[in-house]
Description:
The complex is a heterodimer. Chain A has helices at about 1-20, 20-35, 40-45, 55-80, 110-125, 135-140, 175-180, 220-235, 290-295, 315-320, 335; strands spanning about 125-130, 135, 165, 185-195, 205-220, 245, 255-260, 280-290, 305-310. The model of chain A has no long low-confidence stretch (mean pLDDT about 90). Chain A folds into 2 domains: about 1-85, no CATH class; about 110-335, 2-Layer Sandwich (BirA Bifunctional Protein, domain 2), CATH 3.30.930.10. Chain A has 11 helices and 9 strands. In chain A, helix 1 runs antiparallel to helix 2, helix 2 packs antiparallel against helix 4 (about 55-80) and helix 5 (about 110-125) packs across helix 10 (about 315-320). In chain A, strand 6 and strand 7 form a beta hairpin. Chain B is an alpha+beta fold. Chain B folds into 5 domains: about 1-75, Phenylalanyl-tRNA Synthetase, Chain B, domain 1 (2-Layer Sandwich), CATH 3.30.56.10; about 85-295, Phenylalanyl-trna Synthetase, Chain B, domain 3 (Phenylalanyl-tRNA Synthetase, Chain B, domain 3); about 305-370, Phenylalanyl-tRNA Synthetase, Chain B, domain 1 (2-Layer Sandwich), CATH 3.30.56; about 390-600, Bira Bifunctional Protein, Domain 2 (BirA Bifunctional Protein, domain 2, 2-Layer Sandwich); about 615-705, 2-Layer Sandwich (Alpha-Beta Plaits). Chain B is about 30% helix and about 25% strand. In chain B, the strands form 8 sheets. A 7-stranded mixed β-sheet of chain B has the order 20-23-24-28-27-26-25, with helices on both faces. Chain B has a 6-stranded mixed β-sheet with strand order 5-6-9-12-13-14. Chain B has a 5-stranded mixed β-sheet with strand order 4-16-7-15-8. In chain B, a hairpin with a 5-residue loop joins strand 25 (about 540-545) and strand 26 (about 550-560). The longest helix of chain B has 19 residues, at about 680-700. Chain B is elongated. Chain B starts with a strand and ends with a strand. The model of chain B has no long low-confidence stretch (mean pLDDT about 95). The interface between A and B is large, with 86 and 97 residues.
Amino acid sequence: MLEQLQQLADEALAAIAQAEDEKQLEQVRVKYLGRKGLLRQLQQGIKDIPAEQRPAVGKKFNEVSAQLKEAFAGRQEELAARPAVEDASADRVDVTLPGRTLRIGKQHPLLATLERMTEIFIGLGFSVVEGPEVENYYYSFEALNYPPDHPAMDEQMTFYISNNVLLRSQTSTVQVRAMERMQPPVRIIVPGRCFRRDNVDATHCHTFYQLEGLLVDEGVTFADLKGTLEAFATAMYGEQCHMRFRPDFFPFTEPSAEIALTCILCGGKGCRVCSHTGWLEVGGSGMVDPNVLEGVGYDSERYTGFAFGMGIERLAMLMHGIDDIRLFYSGDMRFLEQF
Amino acid sequence: MRIPCDWLKEYIEIDLPAEEIGRVLTMGGLEVEQVVEHRDEAGGAAEPVLVTSVTSNRGDLLSVVGTARHLSALTGRCLRAPSYSSPATESPVTADRRVELGPVTVEIIDAEGCPRYCALLIEGIQVGPSPQWMQARLEAAGLRAINNVVDCTNYVMLELGQPLHAFDFHLLADGHVIVRKARAGETLTTLDGIDRRLTPDDLLICDPGGPIALAGVMGGASTEIHAGSTAVLLEAAHFHPATVRKTSLRLGLSTEASYRFERHVDPNLPLVALARVAELIIQTAGGQIKGQAIDVKTRAFSPRTVTLRPARCNALLGTDIAPRQMSDYLKRLGFEVRRANEDLVQVTVPTARPDVQREVDLIEEIAVIHGYDNIPLTIPGKLAASAVLTVEQRTERRARHILRACGLNETISFSMISPRDLQKLGLPPGHPQTNCLSLANPMSEEYTVMRTTLLPSLLAAAQHNINQRVTEIALYEINRVYLPQEGSELPSEPKRVAGLVTGSPFTARWNMPRSAELVDFFWIKGIVEQLCEGLGIQELAWARANHPAFHPGRCARLLVSGRDAGVVGEMSPEVQQNFDLPEKVYAFELDFDLLIEKANLTNVYKPLPRLPAALRDVAVIVPDTDEFSAARVMETIKAAGGEYLAAVEPFDVFTDPKRIGPGRRSLAFSLQFRAPDRALTSEEVEAMMEAIYARLEKELGAEVRKTQ
Lengths: 339, 708
């Protein structure tokens, strides 16, 4: 009997504590403490137990009854002290009005493209280095094996500060600076800003970005150059995108190759953008000329290497459908907020 | 260069359509930009013309025969190599400086500029129009027909690649040709009728009376072939590429001849070209060769021999080409190949190919003829160490993320500006930022100097947006500025981070109180604080700053570890006016390299407090001057509060002459006290508050308003 009583008390206390409002609490009260409640029902069994046990059991009944009444009152007080939960159904907003928060800023599409390219080359084991934008003649031409007074320099359309100081027209200028600091293996990319005296129109600008790559080690081959750039092309634009290599001339590479991507607009079928060739010229590449390697003190018999340079603007324009290169430098919010 | 297909096919047996020839040449390193249909004026059949773009190392491809030779090498089709000669050129009269032959004397004084000069005299010619077939070909190739003599020289230039010149022999003083550098003050009227002032760098063809042609660039008007000419002295010379290039560049005069000489013409071509042009002139203008050809040859021009190791070729290309195959490729190019032994091949390179000097150049030739497409693809192995971004690069990326999260859009602008932009920024003459590198050859007045600050570019962008009726502007740029350095040719190129805001930063503004919807000084300052916070930069301090571009009352300098990190504030009314900005504009420009140096991306966790803080408020009234700045009051509170004072935050700042008196300011702060290991008793907290009150009164003379 005592055990039954204790079990009942525990159940009742739990139920009181769990009652979430006065209505529930009243139900609990009726169930356990009401005139036909469980406590009273149990109490009626008292006459069936031996007489000598009755005083103890009766005492326990009184304790439990008092305990429950106290818990009940306490819970009643708690619930009464709670602020009434108002009926929220009448309080409504027009959920179709625009939300109001801080506008986030967007990443510039050119730098986003550069960042993505950088990530792919990091995955291919290339580290990122930078170099000066204002360069001297030596690193721009001489160290890159440009013959003096050669028409190859005309193509660079260089801005000069003085006879010996100029704005770099390609990120290749960083090749020699990097090799002077390092010993092979050299495995770097150089993203950066370049300048050429090019008249500004929808597809040309005097300021542009390039990504240069350089790998010098023992046993580096032209096949490695092809494989690396093909891996980049598929990582950047998907399995259906390839890189085409075509003989070209750069003083600092031999053999040299122009590199072109499968036109990402027409998928290589030929369209207006790719002049119906199916290919988009994106830059130049080749095996580092032995003269460049010897110029920085590398043994060109032991070490070979490849280098490549890609323009970023065109890739970003094609990826995002941008038709005017000048937008990149406009600072126009209507443009920048779209990315 | 424009190559008519029918002309090309005179020198190669090939039946491919023009488009296919174009594709083969393009993939073989001679880019065919387009194939056009040319219809001659007589209305004959349309003939395809290949428009080629020749790389600057391949002067040998600037001719029909050169193109045919390359096409033959690429396709293996048979080259019909021309073998033009005549008795007069077979056995020329030769010497190393001067030849006198009958009425003609040729003399080279500048052997460096002109290593070889060949001449041939034809007498009894009759000048008139050239035959129709020749005119048609010249037109298809993009040249204008002039007369039979000049047309023949142009025809041979296009055909063989050797620029030629025809002098009216009777207009040449004493029949004497002298090749020398110009003397100061000499002038020459060129064929285009322009008087050219010459410099001692210019190489000239002269007669005893003075200049008669700009060597390798353009002939002179005084000896021009005209309708009445009866004798022609033909020039076929070899000029030094750089010499021709210098004159051509200086005069801004690029001709078919100079274009070819700059890119190197075969020094052994002149006599062949003379034989060919004499044949054509006699055929079209009559006359006969007088005597022998003259060949003033200051040195020998022998073919070069280069050694090739086939194994090295395969090692560089990553291929497995058989040595016999390599030899075959080289022979197709007109190179002579001699197998020395198993591992070595001796290759004799014709003088038309000065670009092939070393083994690696031969390897390129082999790769081109083999086809780049036939070289396999491999991934280079042997990663020495994994590639990662440096701490500086990661910090820069983090900074860009934070600024965007603060609502600023990333932008980029030009490195070149105009000094006017710095004036518009309010910088007085002599301000350090007006010391810019200037471009020696700018393209326009807008961009003449290298920028020393990013602010003018951001302000110009703001102006552009306002002009487009965009009034909500939030921009940042991280880029370099260019600062001239004492004792160094190159500038330093530190990175700056600059930001600009105006208007509202919110996505929507409906029902917002006007005072809350627009950015202000504390908004832009908040962005800078968030940037520093996000980069883990400790030891920040702020001070009032004077900067000519900013509002004098709303401009602050950021100090990081006591070093000047840049300015933040509202643009001055003058700057706003200069850039036509109607709303208030706020901006900052910071030393990004300093921020990177002081950044710490790896934050150390501090255990969370286990016990709630005790909260108290304190308000002080102090003079409304910079001396009694909020920062100073807070420092005083912190110094007096002791180790358990966990936070001090301002919550109310005002001036009100009526309530607190004129020239005074009230600053109220909420304080949090917390001990790491136990609850502080209210007695302890009161004791600390008393210490704070006392310090504020003593050190600042503040009137302390004690609140609970």
